Amino acid sequence: LGYLIQLLINMLRNILTNTISKNNVLKNCLPTVSSAYNLSVQKKIKVDNPVVELDGDEQTRIIWQMIKDKLITPYVDCDIKYYDLGLPYRDETNDQVTIDSANAIKEYNVGIKCATITPDEQRVEEFNLKKMWRSPNGTIRNILGGTVFREPILIENVPLLVPGWKKPIVVGRHAFGDQYKCTDFITGNRGGKLEMRFTPDDGSDVQNYEVYNFEKPGGIGLCMYNTDESIEAFAHACFRVALEKSWPLYMSTKNTILKKYDGRFKDIFEEIFQANYKSEFDSKGIWYEHRLIDDMVAQMLKSEGGFVWACKNYDGDVQSDIVAQGFGSLGLMTSVLVSPDGKTVEAEAAHGTVTRHYRQHQQGKETSTNPIASIFAWTRGFLHRAKLDNNSELSNWAHQLEEATLDTVRNGQMTKDLALAIHGANLKREHYLNTQDYMEAISDSLKSRLS
């Protein structure tokens, strides 16, 4: 209704201007009409329920604040529950802030996350950390469960590195367990026996497995796990997305090597497909198929796209970046974690903290950082909030922000990474905008669309 009123006011202004511009009395009315129009544009959209904001690190933290100041808070009246997941504060709170933020997302059903640092040895030294904290994404995903769906953002004038791809490829990444919740260790400079033991809770015999006998100087080991419940939820989520998009679904493992571990993924997917989804897939003319991971990677590169790819946790981490780059840029990929019941989501940028640009920023140098994936993290979060709250005005605004962002690139305004994809070796400085100017271009594009 608000946008209809704005349209009617705009039409009235045009009629008054074009047909009776010589009438001084009516000419004096135009400023009043214009003021009413501008006031309606500036009115914020009321959001009934909160969203959870998870701040991040380095260059993405800088552009995150720009996005919030220029594109979010001027338009949306929302209770934003803020959690600082910057590495210094995670260290200060012994990573409790990450756990608290995940529980807040469970409470309010919508999380919107900036990219964060997962520390390695170098980062421990750089930030003088108490310990090498785990991946915040891994912690959040293990608390929320569910599946991460990553889909490329296609822009007509950004060329593809894989020219055969004509349609998007959606990567469904299982967001629980495996390497991201494993126990790993170093033996130290000594030999010894690595064993694995399972103690059943029904009182039956303990199962012992001898893994390896180390000789000095030793080595490394790990133990990881997953659950039938989580794999089943993963399967249901992937089948539902494939049906929603009317695309085939492929599930990839290395069950020829991990016969029990990956074989369990394969068996559960097949059982659920046959019992719950086969008839619906058949009616849509789509299919489900399990493939070995190496065969699936080759098939992906040869395909034209247009399918959903269910990946185990680590495979999805790696392959989603390959897919993003193949479609033009790591900065053009949405990432949404969907809980098993579909009610809770956490949206984030699919890339890292852009450390190289942050170092340039620290030196006072110009940067040209692509904010598109971070903007889409906000929009996808608010789109889910709009769906839960039945808020059509919020949904329309989020779609308008996405299109306004893409319009800038279509019109030749973009950051250096996209300009490089378009111009290659012929890239010149006039082909791209710096970080601040590009954000202004998006802001202007949004204002133009909303008017």
Explain what the structure shows.
This protein has 451 residues and is an alpha/beta fold. It is 49% helix and 18% strand. Helix 1 (2-19) runs antiparallel to helix 2, helix 8 packs parallel to helix 9 and helix 13 (372-389) packs antiparallel against helix 14 (392-410).
Short description:
The protein is 49% helix and 18% strand.
Whole-angstrom Rg: 25 Å
SS field, number of helical segments:
16
Mean model confidence by pLDDT: 90
**Oligomeric state, counting identical vs distinct chains:** single chain
What percent strand?
15-25%
Write the layout of secondary structure elements.
Elements: H1 2-19, H2 24-42, E1 45-46, E2 51-55, H3 58-72, E3 76-77, E4 80-84, H4 87-92, H5 96-108, E5 110-113, H6 121-127, H7 136-144, E6 147-152, E7 169-174, E8 183-186, E9 192-198, E10 207-214, E11 220-223, H8 228-245, E12 249-253, H9 261-284, E13 288-292, H10 293-302, E14 307-311, H11 313-326, E15 333-338, E16 345-349, H12 355-362, H13 372-389, H14 392-410, H15 416-423, H16 435-450
Parallel strand pairs: 1-3, 2-4, 2-5, 5-16, 7-14, 12-13, 12-14
Antiparallel strand pairs: 6-7, 6-15, 8-11, 9-10, 15-16
Helix pairs in contact: 1-2, 3-16, 5-7, 8-9, 13-14, 14-16
Descriptive key words:
single chain, 451 residues, alpha/beta, ten-stranded mixed sheet, 16 strands, 49% helix, 18% strand, globular
